[in-house]
Write a structure and sequence with these properties.
This protein has about 450 residues and is an alpha/beta fold. The chain has 17 helices and twelve strands. β11, α13 and β12 form a beta-alpha-beta unit. The structure holds NADPH dihydro-nicotinamide-adenine-dinucleotide phosphate (NDP).
Length: about 450
């Protein structure tokens, strides 16, 4: 395989999908060497079969807003690869959603799910519908209309969606209700469900907690821990909130959080009580992070990212490409020792180069945020055996999965000088399992 040629070919065949190209390029550039040690892979053109999704569903979603206007959005489901298990990956509702973004997410998800060691393939879906500013009734009608199309393509052994940006417990609940009505079956086809109807304890917390468990493992390799470390978090949604919760619990200090309008900087640290306020503000009142600054009298910077503030650790937890090369240089100049990604692909390729050249600890989302889908996998298992595990049991499994992912990264990513290239480690480890499964299953 020649990574450059494969990428050029994909760009030609699928133009105008820059995020998809970016995600593929990152993986190809790190697995090329390992791939080429296995001539049997190239004989069956494994790489193209792995880069191009198995199939993509694309549909119109029509719903009626509170004023009686008929509205239309686009809906998608990308079923990327099911070599090691049913397709699995979140649903994103955000105005920016398009096919290229979902293809990048589904591609990434395939490697991430492989890393978890659970039997899950990769997929992703969503819509350009934005829940922001919509009433509960509008969100419900949209979720129902979306499921009216999606239901025929998913199932407990086929494809199991979950939440992502703009899709939390509320949206999963509405979609599950419609799915159940259409199929007339109660199955665990969505994860991230409410606790009363098959959801798993620790699922809401899992991505954020998992990221911090992974960070702890990285810090250990340098004889460090989280105590007293100043952390920058971007975002203030599901991932950001539970990342902050775990940092606070382990004695770190969170000084920033953000939303798409700007960020707050609280030099005293966001403590438990202030985090409760953010959770209520975001999850209940669906307000803006600016209101935190007004309440606690701290700095609010509109239209900017938090990466210029001084800290020890950065935890990007909002969205893709939210941290560029300039931000990365600023972080390194300010003495950051670790960057661990809660979001998917938040750092641009240039930012990643800066982190790796500075030899700081850097974990890509594919490894560091795999806790979310891991507990989704555990939710599927609990649904299948019709049992619910305790909080402690799920948390223990989550910790052990994150430790294993870290170990896999160390195994495949340690360079001759001892620096752990977590990007390479995660990509090679994730790739090898999927590749072997595809080889064993023949040309399909
Ligand atoms: P939420 O919708 O709960 O929160 C997203 C947060 O990011 C909000 O604060 C939102 O601000 C902000 N944000 C979204 N888009 C942008 C943007 N274009 N520019 C700036 N800020 C933005 O989503 P999650 O917390 O679930 O997801 C966050 C990230 O984590 C995503 O990359 C997602 O793919 C990834 N992830 C999520 C998992 C999960 O279990 N939920 C699992 C693994 C990864 P605003 O309120 O203004 O929109």
């Amino acid at each position: 395989m020649n990574a450059t040629n494969v990428l050029e070919d994909l760009k030609r065949r699928f133009p105008n999908e820059p995020e998809y190209h970016q995600a593929v390029e990152e993986v190809l550039s790190t697995i090329e060497e390992e791939y080429n040690k296995h001539p049997e892979f190239d004989k069956v053109n494994l790489i193209e079969r792995l880069c191009i999704p198995d199939r993509v569903y694309q549909f119109r979603v029509t719903w009626v807003d509170d004023q009686g206007n008929v509205r239309t959005n686009m809906g998608y489901r990308v079923q990327h690869n099911n070599a090691i298990g049913p397709y699995k990956g979140g649903i994103r509702f955000h105005a920016s959603v398009n096919l290229g973004i979902l293809k990048f997410l589904a591609f990434e998800q395939t490697f991430k799910n492989s890393l978890t060691t659970l039997p899950m393939g990769g997929g992703k879906g969503g819509s350009d519908f934005s829940p922001r500013g919509k009433s509960n009734a509008e969100v419900m009608r949209f979720c129902q209309a979306f499921m009216l199309e999606l239901w025929r393509h998913i199932g407990p052994e086929t494809d199991v969606p979950a939440g992502d940006i703009g899709v939390g417990g509320r949206e999963v609940g509405y979609m599950f209700g419609m799915y159940k009505k259409l199929t007339r079956e109660f199955t665990g086809t969505l994860t991230g469900k409410g606790l009363e109807f098959g959801g798993s304890l620790i699922r809401p917390e899992a991505t954020g907690y998992g990221n911090i468990y992974f960070l702890q493992e990285m810090l250990k390799t340098r004889g460090q821990d989280l105590k007293g470390k100043v952390c920058l978090i971007s975002g203030s949604g599901n991932v950001a909130q539970y990342t902050a919760e775990k940092v606070i619990e382990l004695g770190g200090k969170v000084v920033t959080m953000s939303d798409s309008d700007g960020y707050i900087y609280d030099p005293d640290g966001i403590d438990r009580e202030k985090l409760d306020y953010i959770m209520e503000l975001k999850n209940l009142y669906r307000g803006r992070i600016r209101e935190y600054a007004e309440k606690y009298g701290c700095k609010y910077v509109p239209g900017a990212k938090p990466w210029g503030e001084k800290a020890d650790i950065a935890l990007p937890s909002a969205t893709q490409n939210e941290l560029n090369g300039d931000h990365a240089r600023q972080l390194v100049a300010n003495g950051v020792i670790a960057v661990s990604e809660g979001a998917n692909m938040p750092s641009t390729p240039e930012a990643i180069r800066v982190f790796q050249e500075a030899k700081i600890l850097y974990a890509p989302g594919k490894a560091a945020n795999a806790g979310g889908v891991s507990v989704s996998g555990l939710e599927m298992t609990q649904n299948a055996i019709k049992l619910g595990w305790t909080k402690e049991e799920v948390d223990e499994r989550l910790k052990s999965i994150m430790r294993n992912i870290h170990e896999a990264c160390v195994k495949y990513g340690t360079e001759p000088d001892g620096y752990i290239n977590y990007v390479k480690g995660a990509n090679v480890a994730g790739f090898m399992k999927v590749a072997k499964a595809m080889m064993a299953q023949g040309i399909v």
